[in-house]
């Protein structure tokens, strides 16, 4: 595990880099945002892990049981459904009209090929944000305040990091699920898969113009629970 000082310094470096580089790449659109995320979030986390330990296990890039992937996919493909119906409306009441419009614009991507949307808005953010939040920050939080409060604090921080009240609660719940996977499995890969599939599901639903009706929410929540139970049963306690 990385020292607290290394984690804090790297997290601050990531913030500074993103603030400085984000505006420089904004004119490039989605590819520019991806470059800023890789440069600001992924590379510093990977670099400090390699420098201090000689490998990437310190940020969770280790193997995990195969059945965990099945549970993770089940969680990812059901979580977004009940969040859309039960949690997202709360945040939209909190948010300003401008923030709600920005949220809708994020998924209104009919002019962009689907593979580009998935790459720039699902895969790249999943890899980069997970390396920073669950690979670097979460282990340090859980060491300091315990795994339960560490996951909760990390989820709130993850939600706040998106700077949009409309996204705060759904993103925090996603962070809660990803953090739980990270600590239970000891690996960052399931959290990355969860994050990428969650974003992909929202993007595909938006692109095809169909969202599951409210009657799907309860079965989806049961699917999420089933996936979580499968993950818990196939992994030893790592926390």
What can be said about this structure in brief?
With 239 residues, the protein is mostly helical. It has helices spanning 4-25, 30-53, 66-94, 97-107, 114-145, 147-160, 165-185, 189-208, 217-233. The protein has nine helices and no strands.
Write down the secondary-structure element order. Answer: HHHHHHHHH
User: How many runs of DSSP E, i.e. beta strands?
Assistant: 0
Helix percentage = over 70%
Largest sheet: none
Rg on CA atoms, Å = 17 Å
Mean pLDDT: 91
End-to-end separation in angstroms reads 13 Å
Strand percentage: under 5%
Backbone structural class: mainly alpha
Give the low-confidence spans: none
Number of domains: 1
Shape: globular
Give the helix tally.
Answer: 9
Written overview of the protein:
The chain is built from nine helices and no strands. By secondary structure, it is mostly helical. The chain has one domain (61-233). Helix 5 runs antiparallel to helix 8 (189-208) and helix 6 (147-160) packs antiparallel against helix 7 (165-185). The longest helix has 32 residues, at 114-145. The mean pLDDT is 91.
Keywords for this entry:
globular; 9 helices; 239 residues
List the helices and strands and how they pair.
Elements: H1 4-25, H2 30-53, H3 66-94, H4 97-107, H5 114-145, H6 147-160, H7 165-185, H8 189-208, H9 217-233
Helix pairs in contact: 1-2, 1-5, 2-5, 3-7, 3-8, 3-9, 5-6, 5-7, 5-8, 6-7, 7-8
């Amino acid at each position: 595990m990385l020292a607290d000082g290394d984690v804090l310094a790297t997290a601050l470096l990531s913030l500074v880099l993103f603030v400085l580089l984000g505006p420089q790449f904004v004119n490039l659109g989605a590819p520019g945002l991806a470059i800023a995320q890789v440069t600001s979030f992924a590379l510093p986390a990977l670099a400090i892990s390699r420098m201090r330990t000689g490998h990437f296990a310190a940020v969770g890039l280790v193997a995990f049981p195969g059945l965990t992937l099945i549970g993770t996919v089940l969680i990812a493909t059901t979580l977004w459904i009940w969040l859309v119906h039960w949690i997202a409306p709360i945040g939209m009441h909190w948010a300003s009209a401008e923030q709600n419009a920005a949220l809708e614009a994020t998924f209104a991507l009919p002019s962009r090929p689907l593979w580009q949307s998935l790459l720039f808005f699902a895969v790249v953010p999943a890899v980069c944000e997970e390396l920073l939040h669950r690979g670097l920050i979460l282990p340090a939080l859980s060491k300091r305040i315990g795994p339960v409060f560490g996951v909760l604090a990390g989820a709130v921080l993850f939600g706040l990091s998106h700077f949009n009240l409309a996204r705060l609660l759904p993103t925090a719940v996603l962070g809660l699920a990803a953090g739980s996977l990270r600590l239970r499995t000891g690996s960052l890969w399931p959290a990355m898969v969860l994050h990428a599939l969650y974003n992909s599901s929202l993007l595909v639903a938006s692109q095809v113009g169909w969202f599951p009706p409210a009657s799907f929410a309860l079965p989806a929540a049961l699917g999420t629970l089933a996936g979580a139970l499968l993950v818990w049963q196939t992994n030893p306690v790592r926390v």
